[in-house]
Specification:
mainly alpha, single chain, transmembrane helix, SecE_bac
C-alpha cells in the first residue's frame, strides 16, 4: 500500500534543471499590480472581519435576551 511502481529516484541535476525551467515560466507581477492586489486583499480581510464581529455581537445579544 502506498508503494510506487518504480523506486528509482531522479538524479539531483535533473531535478535542479527542471526547477530552473519551471521558475523561468513564472510571470512575476509588476509593482503596480502587486500593490493593487495587496490593497484588495487587505480591504477584503477588514470588511469580512468587521462583518464577522458584527454577527458575533448580534448573536451574543440575542442569546443574552433568550437566556438572561
Amino acid at each position: 500500500m502506498g508503494e510506487t511502481a518504480s523506486n528509482e529516484k531522479a538524479p539531483k541535476k535533473d531535478f535542479i534543471k527542471g526547477l530552473k525551467a519551471e521558475f523561468s515560466k513564472i510571470i512575476w507581477p509588476d509593482k503596480e499590480t502587486l500593490t493593487k492586489q495587496s490593497v484588495v486583499v487587505v480591504a477584503t480581510t477588514l470588511v469580512l472581519g468587521i462583518a464577522i464581529a458584527l454577527l458575533d455581537l448580534i448573536i451574543k445579544f440575542g442569546l443574552n435576551i433568550v437566556i438572561g
